[in-house]
Structure formats: C-alpha cells, structure tokens
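Priority: low. Protein: SDR family oxidoreductase. Input follows.
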Amino acid sequence: MTDLTDKVAIVTGASRGIGRAITLLLAMQGAKVVAVARTAEELEELNAKTQGLAIPADVADEDDAAHIVAETLSHFGRLDILVCNAGVGSFNLLEHFDAAEWDRIFDVNVKGTFLLCKAVVPHFKAQGSGHIVGITSDVSKRTFEHGTAYGASKFAQDALLSSLRKEVRPHGVKVSTIYPGLVDTYFNDSRPGSLDAEKTHLKPSDVAQAVRYVLEAPAHVVVDELMLHPMTQEW
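Result:
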C-alpha cells in the first residue's frame, strides 16, 4: 500500500462536512494537508488541528486556483495529491431556476474542478506522478426530479474527470472518482445529525475512508470509480 506520510495534499471545500473529514483523516495518516475553502475562520480552526496550510480561496476563480497551487509548492516544495471536493447544490423545478443560480452551481462543481486540475496537471506530468481524486455524486449516474442543475453539473464533472484520466495516465498520474450517495452534512443548507439521516445517509468519515482507500492503493492499481451506497454504508 502507498504510504501517505509526508505526502502533500490539497483538499478543496475543506472547512465542513466531507472536506473536513478528508482533511483530518489524511493528516492523521501523516500527510501535509492544504485546506482550501472560502471561510477563513473555519479553515484556521481546522488547520490548528492538522498543522498544515490553510488557504481561503474561491475555487471558481482562475487566479485563486493558480495561487493555491503556487502557495502549496512554495510552502512545502512538492505536491502529490489533489482532492476536488468543493461543491454546491440547489434543487427546484427547471422553470424556477434563474441563470445566476445555474451559473453558481456550475462554477463551483465543474469550473472549480477544471481550474484546480488545470493548475496541478503540468506539475504532476513533469514529476511523473500525482493523484487527483474527484468527489462527484451518485447523481453523476442517474437523474431525478428537481435535479436539473445539480445533476447536469455532476454529469459534467464526471465527464471531465473521466476524460482527464485518459489524458494523464500515460504520464504516471492517477485520476479517481468517488460517487457518494446521501451524506449527513451541511449540503444544501441541511443540518447534520438528524435521526433520519443516521439511518439513510453516509457519514463524512465514510467518504474520507474511501478517499484514503484509493490514495493508498499500490502504484500499479488504478481505481477509476468508487460508488458509495448510503443505505448500507458499503463501497
């Protein structure tokens, strides 16, 4: 298995929920984690636990994305892992969506993934190694009522990562995609910890363990896709 000790990892959407759980778990495994989110106060509190690097940033801003990678390389001198976890969602009938909300969902879920990948791929290719992990959703594989915007963004994010996997594999770079079902987080203004969620939702730590699994797989093993099922909490 791949040892994560001293590996340098960027995790986006790190201040809460899945991103926070991934950040804490990777730090526990000895990785040096760069936590990225828009909320500086929450990032600093998290960074106090991990002793990594906190970078307040908007993943959908091209200058911010380039800054995240440049600051990571300047601080640690290397970069091994990118976890594209930042995501937003909103659910409504299509005719009730306005263009600004549609753009916000695509900016974070798709453009944010694109910009961070664009910033790290040249570095990963040059060093002949690196691992990108995308946290998409099980709705990358299915559709549902009221899910036009979110579902379309997750289909697009999944296609982006799948295509990128084929581009970078010859250069020794891995791309893995994780598809969680319902997760007990603050997503879409939810409040974690409800009784129903405990029965029907994954925990953020379940997704974090899936990320650890794909990252620790031996170098010759490629895990392209990993689906997590909330009802059984199995993957």
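DSSP finds seven helices and seven strands in the chain. Residues 231-235 have pLDDT under 50 and may be disordered.
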